[in-house]
Amino acid sequence: MLLLILLLLLLLLLLLLLLLLLLLLLLLLLLLLLLLLLLLLLLLLLLLLLLLVYY
């Protein structure tokens, strides 16, 4: 009986860890997307600057 309860607790703990890992992955993906957006914005600004300088 006690062993069963311990196993269930362990399983619960593993599930929680998995959930945390998934959340971390999602956060990393969001950060990557934000960085990509920032890079795109910077590129656009540079292009605009170049156009302004040449015209």
TrEMBL record:
Superkingdom of source: Eukaryota
Bilayer-spanning residue ranges: 34-54
Keywords, alphabetical: Membrane, Transmembrane, Transmembrane helix
Record's protein name: Uncharacterized protein
